[in-house]
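Marked as duplicate of an earlier ticket. Keeping the data here for the record.
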Amino acid sequence: MKHQKPVITYLLISMLFCLSLLPVGGAHAQAATARVGVFDPLTIPPGADFEIPIQVKDVTGLYAIDLEFQFDPAILEARDADPTLEGVQMGYGEFLEPGLLLYNKIDNQTGTVQVVITQINPAEPKSGSGILFVLYGKALKTGSTELVITKLQLASMEGLEIPAEKVEAAIKVEEGAPAIEATPIPIVDPTSVILIPTVAPNPISTLAPTATPLPTLAAAATQPLPTEPQTVETEIPLKASGFSLAQNWWIVVLVLAVAAGLAIHLFRMKSQK
């Protein structure tokens, strides 16, 4: 038993050595997680027009986005940014290049906004910060409402999901609030976006079950545009960074080190008998 202490010491040293080989990129990746939403609260008087930028910050390789948020329709009323289309739509910011549009709909009855859009080849993925969309509207009466994000999904050019945090801000309508000095936010000409009609006029609070999911849309948009009509596949699953021994090789090293230590310990115990 006199060899037990050195063997245990060896096991501890082996485990500490293996732990020191753990990838340290996780902490950096978490710190660099993209953020999407409304970053600045707004206070306006009743009856005032407003424009609210929906922004993205610290994103890497963005190619497509699926966003849904809600507001109190008793407090705010959304205005149309594209009179050429039926219904009410948001404006397109200049962060992403014009591409394929699946949804851009606002329901003033429920206060629901949904937009799904992707760039198309040969547009390059976008990194950094900027304005994705602009919500135009009018303050109806005094009160407060938050723009609550109910769905957020970002995708890369390859169809991989990009982690993102939701950022929500309160919009207050108060008597005596200072008038807004309008500084128009630059937006993209809506006619430069290619509209993909939805399969069925489902409520905008949920995606149409038969509609092309965002990762599929992002991946398909990287291909050259067809010269003849083609059927788009709708059931390509979102790629995920699942567990892989190639990426988690340190686990194998740790297991082998512990196994080797136990083998040495058992061998020495047997030799002492």
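See parent ticket for discussion. Residues 15-31, 199-211, 228-247 have pLDDT under 50 and may be disordered.
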